[in-house]
Amino acid sequence: MATLILTTVGSFFGGPIGGALGGYVGRQIDSAIFGGPKPREGARLNELTVQTSSYGTQIPGVLGKMRMAGTVIWASDLIEQKVKSGGGKNRPSTVQYSYSVNLAVAISSRPVKRIGRIWADGNLVRGQDGIFKVDTEFRFYPGSEFQAVDPLIASAENVAKCPAFRGLSYVVFEGLQLADFGNRVPSFSFEVIERDAPVSVSDICNSASGGLISGTSAETVSGYALQGDSARASIKPVLKLAPVAVLPVDDGMVVRDWAAPMSSHSLSDVAEAQGDARPSLDRSFPGAEAEIPAFGLRYYDVSRDFQAGLQVSARSGVGRKPHAFEFPGALDAQAALRLADWQLLNIPRQSFETVGMFAIGPESLAVGDKAMLPGDQRSWHIAEVEMSGWRCALH
After folding, report:
1. How many domains does the structure of the chain reveal?
2. Is residue 45 part of a domain?
3. Span 178-203, pLDDT tens digits
């Protein structure tokens, strides 16, 4: 407004030269009152908070090597930086806004050895060499029972009440620049390495059960994620997929491979069930449900950056529908195909079942042992032993 008025007045009294002088004086008044030409401002976020994870989110425990999505357990507000550039010679300046954030991300509810590669929104931001492709400071806490409180979190929170998250493996990003992610917090996933060697099925069962399930197994997977509302739920997928069995012992349970050396029993002495009108042997045979044309195994492929993989074992013949199985673990393609083949071959056999009560002590029977029945030339496998009444199921 001042420029317009003084230009008009200057032109009235002094002609074109007076108008130019009036415009110059008006701009000086504008600069004194309004601080010069209004700068052009870049994009700016209106909301400076980070959406963190909700309460009750389960954090799986990693065994072996897995790619895991992180769970944010602490975060600061977004930090805004303003950079002014340009301007001068009556041209407006430009203000650009950039954002960074501090956050802690949990990666495993169990201690782990180290962190390998890191992805953000599916893009690799840290390679095998440990060098980041984004601007940030990074700290890793393996989940030790003696790990200290992170200094950044302690400085932002009440240091007396700040947890060290002992027993929980997590990472801290300090000053993570968000320009490469559209000024928003990206979705991270981590290559979590609990051990360099593959993990055996017996180790998985032992870890999930707190030592209740012992034994040794030659069956291994590259990685596995313990998750579920109970120890039984967490190991159910691997026990259902791998050729292993869990059998009771005096003070717990033990894992046994189906391929391990087994004893042979001749169950010729069949005892009648006292007070039970049912026949001593109950037999069931496969129906159409057992005739599946293919078994499809979905898993995390270690050779493809832990992306979802699918291996299908198929056979000729009429069937109802293919069977699909979701496995929360990491495998290579060859191991996944072997397990799919084993499942396809054993599904019909598992549909032949004989359940009975035999005059032999349960301590003499073990899951996976061979058994012969009177008048039956087939070789059966003991699939289940019930301690009460010495009742067992044969496949």
Report:
1. 4
2. no
3. 988 988 889 999 999 999 999 999 99
